[in-house]
């Protein structure tokens, strides 16, 4: 038995002119959790896709348990005991949980899927990990977070010895993240080898043993988690010390620009609030508290009651598109839902929102659009080969930045951001915080929904907290702390229900 269950040596990968990986080597022991870190576009997913047989290296060699292997197709990697939970989930909504877990491996009897058997096997897997879903219910009934756990069950169903998690916690709630940590610790005890990609430092310190950092497709160093500080890791990732994550606040709240009264539907209960010009209003709460639902109701995506005023005049918004015309831009939380046209270029995707706004006049000035697009590629540090590059070729975090860029390019008066930095690396996060601050300083009014406490506290002038669809509290910058936000996030004044 070799000391290492896995070694990847001198791996390079070129996509046309892009050098996604350049002479990267990696090793992994049994019972070890290796955290793969790096900025968006650094090459993390690509390296793991090569291991999983989804992509072929341009150069390099993989060894499993000391033996050189060729992994040409995903099925080869499964043969060698590698299983990967991908960043972009590939699941089928109209199939059941069990069918999704055993997809492509149905056990059939006389041409029929042995439903009973796969349901039992799915159940056994869940029992092993202490998670519970109805194996017979359709996948579409589950949230993104739950689907992520189902994907993990699928990875485990292969009885792999190496499991790769590509940003597993990005969409998980606090409880589910804890559950995943437990699962990873258990896998470790069972001597499985694990590689985890994550932009969240909490993940690294919760379950990681060792860190390896990629930068611009190259090895940038690493070490034992127990011997590295956050600053050390960030230094390796961005190549410089990051002195501050949040910018000095320069914005000032002015008059009321948006007034919402008694917004209500099934998930949101009589929520009233005001948003001021130039203000950054944070909305906190646990996942499921109704924050996304509030934004959806406000924009007329979901039906409901209540009234809205903009600049003192009643206004009704029937769709996000209608919102854009009225000066409200929306960044939704689910990237798949964000209407990115993956086949099309960054430029075309960015222009989409400008088009919506300018279509009234029925003409476009392409040169200007190109410049706008270039501006956001630079500002948001989108790693790409230029504005003509197809969005599907971008890394996950960079796709997120395109959506944000498109949102900003529509030059709204009010910006609604739902988890704006999900899947975005630390360096780019700081850039996004600065952009948000600058926009507010220029008079934009911004609402930010965020599950990250530090983010909420770092950028908001005022924070509204939600619990079970009710507004459970309001805190001004300066008085808000993690503790009092959490306190409001887990309960609300019952009398408010009346
Ligand atoms: N199919 C492809 N065609 C062209 N370029 C690609 C393709 N897939 C990835 N790339 C490029 O390779 C580089 C590395 O991408 P990768 O997805 O590995 O990044 P990552 O480190 O996983 O980033 P993130 O944190 O954003 O997920 C990026 O510049 C990306 O644009
Ligand atoms: Mg990735």
CATH topology of the largest domain: Rossmann fold
Largest sheet, order of strands side by side?
6-9-10-3-11-12
What is the helix fraction of residues, given as a range? Answer: 25-40%
Strand content: 15-25%
Q: Write down how many β-strands occur, each being a DSSP E stretch of 2 or more residues.
A: 22
What is the number of helices?
16
Q: Mean pLDDT, as a whole number?
A: 89
For the biggest sheet, the summary is:
6 strands, mixed
Measured between the Cα atoms of the first and last residue, the distance is: 67 Å
Short description:
By secondary structure, the chain is α/β, with parallel strands linked by helices. The chain has helices at 44-51, 74-79, 97-101, 115-129, 144-157, 174-189, 201-207, 230-238, 291-298, 320-325, 346-358, 366-379, 396-409, 426-441, 453-459, 482-489, and strands at residues 6-15, 18-28, 33-38, 59-64, 67-69, 82-85, 108-109, 112-113, 162-166, 193-197, 210-215, 218-224, 256-264, 271-276, 280-284, 305-310, 313-315, 328-331, 414-418, 445-449, 462-467, 470-476.
Description:
It is a single chain. The protein has 498 residues and is an alpha/beta fold. 33% of the residues lie in helices and 25% in strands. It has helices at 44-51, 74-79, 97-101, 115-129, 144-157, 174-189, 201-207, 230-238, 291-298, 320-325, 346-358, 366-379, 396-409, 426-441, 453-459, 482-489; strands at residues 6-15, 18-28, 33-38, 59-64, 67-69, 82-85, 108-109, 112-113, 162-166, 193-197, 210-215, 218-224, 256-264, 271-276, 280-284, 305-310, 313-315, 328-331, 414-418, 445-449, 462-467, 470-476. Helix 11 packs across helix 12 (366-379), helix 11 runs parallel beside helix 13 (396-409) and helix 12 packs across helix 13. The longest helix is centred in the middle third of the chain and has 16 residues, at 174-189. The chain binds adenosine-5'-triphosphate and magnesium ion. Magnesium ion binds next to helix 1.
């Amino acid at each position: 038995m070799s000391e290492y269950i896995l070694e990847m040596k001198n791996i390079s990968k070129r996509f046309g002119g892009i050098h996604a990986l350049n002479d990267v080597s990696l090793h992994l022991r049994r019972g070890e959790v290796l955290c793969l870190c790096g900025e968006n576009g650094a090459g993390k997913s690509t390296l793991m896709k090569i291991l999983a047989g989804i992509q072929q290296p341009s150069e390099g060699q993989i060894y499993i348990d000391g033996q050189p292997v060729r992994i040409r197709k995903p099925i080869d990697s499964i043969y060698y005991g590698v299983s990967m939970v991908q960043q972009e989930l590939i699941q089928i909504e109209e199939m059941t949980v069990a069918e999704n877990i055993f997809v492509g491996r149905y056990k059939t009897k006389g041409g029929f899927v042995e439903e009973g058997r796969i349901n039992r096997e799915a159940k056994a897997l869940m029992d092993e990990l202490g998670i519970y879903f109805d194996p017979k219910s359709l996948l579409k009934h589950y949230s993104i977070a739950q689907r992520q756990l189902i994907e993990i069950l699928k990875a485990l169903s292969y009885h792999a010895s190496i499991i790769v998690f590509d940003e597993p916690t990005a969409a998980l709630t606090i409880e589910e993240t804890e559950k995943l940590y437990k699962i990873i610790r258990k896998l470790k005890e069972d001597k499985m080898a694990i590689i985890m990609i994550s932009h969240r430092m909490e993940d690294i310190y919760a379950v990681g043993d060792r860190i390896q950092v990629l930068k611009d497709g190259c090895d940038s160093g690493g070490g034992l988690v127990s011997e590295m500080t956050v600053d050390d890791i960030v230094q390796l990732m961005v190549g410089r010390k990051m002195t501050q994550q949040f910018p000095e606040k320069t914005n000032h709240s002015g008059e009321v620009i948006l007034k919402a009264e008694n917004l209500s539907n099934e998930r949101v209960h009589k929520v009233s609030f005001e948003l001021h010009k130039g203000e950054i209003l944070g909305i906190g709460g646990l996942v499921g508290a109704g924050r996304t639902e509030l934004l959806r109701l406000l924009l007329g995506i979901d039906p409901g009651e209540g009234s809205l005023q903009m600049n003192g005049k009643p206004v009704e918004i029937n769709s996000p598109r209608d919102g854009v015309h009225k000066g409200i831009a929306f960044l939704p939380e689910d990237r798949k839902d964000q209407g990115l046209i993956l086949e099309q270029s960054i430029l075309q995707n960015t222009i989409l929102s400008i088009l919506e706004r300018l279509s009234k006049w029925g003409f476009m000035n392409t040169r200007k659009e190109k410049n706008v697009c270039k501006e956001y590629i630079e500002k948001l540090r989108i790693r790409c080969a230029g504005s003509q590059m197809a969005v599907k070729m971008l890394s996950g975090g960079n796709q997120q930045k395109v959506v944000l860029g498109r949102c900003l390019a529509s030059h709204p008066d009010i910006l609604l951001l739902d988890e704006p930095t999900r899947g975005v690396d630390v360096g780019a996060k700081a850039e996004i915080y600065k952009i948000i601050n600058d926009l507010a300083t220029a008079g934009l009014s911004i609402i930010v929904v965020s599950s990250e406490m530090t983010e909420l506290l770092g950028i908001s002038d005022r924070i509204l907290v939600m619990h079970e669809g009710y507004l459970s509290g309001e805190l001004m910058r300066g008085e808000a702390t993690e503790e009092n936000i959490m306190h409001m996030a887990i309960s609300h004044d019952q009398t408010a229900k009346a």
